């Protein structure tokens, strides 16, 4: 698939060390472990799909944006899996980063990937500085301490959690980044794309809650049942499996309805619908 | 002092949450703890001094650069103090971040400060996108996994360490960022400023080794004697106190000689000389 190969190439280019420079070899291994092979690469796929729907007039910019977004996601997985947080042993069907490379390198690889994300956008900015600056602002906002995934993870350390703010920051943020950065890569206004990102994020959160509750570690490639063990708020906990499945369907319909008018609107709606079917397969298969 | 108030104001602005947005309260406390009150703010002071020497035609850009650099430095202290690395109890005369706020929030605060550094530069880029992109590239390079402080810290996890590469990345990187970002803030060529940054970094590394070996925790405000305990390479270990002191003097003379020709060259040389005298006081005082 074309998007898949664009994403993998962009990530490979982003991670390639400059000539005549040496990354400490164990840190280099940890970075590779954290990024390759990937999961579904769903966030950069959404980003490129939105960019294509908006015309994708500068593919080198949208490729950089896709890579940057996925690098932030990989960084968040590396840090969220640490003993101080989820203490997860498995990720993407192999040992989590700190299990494979130790805590110091897992922390440093996460830090390095955050930095690399912004460097990757800045490199694309040599030719399109205005777009790069807006992309960096958008990615920073959805990664940081206020409305970003850092805020999302930090809500878990608070004595009282606002469930909506928590999910919006923890899972929604990078999906909003995906749709908005897709638009920004083409010079389009990002505001009309916020709803689509937010709704896709909500759908993935509910789907993830269902997966965590219904599937085994073997099937998900990561440690299962963590939500219940960690007393983490979840849609399954509050609505039950049937309620959460219905809720998921409603969110996905809303997501498709929210797609802003753009040259590739119909094709994008098809893509979201295809993903929606894939997501809905999870509870159906698990319930038999 | 004018530079000091410029730096504190720029940091306060960078950390101020946007209106109508909520940072998780404990994460907000951790960010404040990590940044205020500061240490000597030496890196942003050097950055602004170089910017002034080059004309400082866009103070809002150099202020943002100074804040961004200090935020990266504060992030690195938060993460380096973690149990997985130095396991330090003290920092800047108070409990280290994870001692005060726990490991999860110390990790997240470090991550958030890295993100905030790049957001701060991008915000300055609304008016000067070309300069912002170059500043982000320069800061990313000196922070990341190849020639940056992440590489520097990661060398400590390698079975064999190249002492020069280690110090250059671990301490030198952010001093090179300081001089080069000072130049870039004014639109000047950063290349001629690399040597000054590198040499100031070397001087601080040697001065830090001397402080660690000679002064008590009370005097330094952080846990002393860690180099020896952690078997970390140090100038004092390899040259002795007298040799390291002589070496420090040579480096500082070289730094002053390396200052590129620029409008404020003489004043900058005076400033470096004043700092050099302050640095040289440490071994003198400690030896009685």
From TrEMBL, chains A, B:
SUPFAM superfamilies tied to this protein: Terpenoid synthases
PROSITE patterns found in the cross-reference section: POLYPRENYL_SYNTHASE_2 (PS00444)
UniProt KW Transmembrane helix keyword: no
Role: Catalyzes the condensation of farnesyl diphosphate (FPP) and isopentenyl diphosphate (IPP) to yield geranylgeranyl diphosphate (GGPP) needed for biosynthesis of carotenoids and diterpenes.
One Gene Ontology molecular-function label: geranylgeranyl diphosphate synthase activity
Enzyme Commission number(s) from the entry: 2.5.1.29
Organism of this sequence: Neotabrizicola shimadae
Pfam family of the protein (one): polyprenyl_synt
Keyword list, A-Z: Carotenoid biosynthesis, Chlorophyll biosynthesis, Isoprene biosynthesis, Magnesium, Metal-binding, Photosynthesis, Transferase
The keyword Nucleus belongs to this UniProt entry's keyword annotation: no
Identification of the protein by name: Geranylgeranyl diphosphate synthase
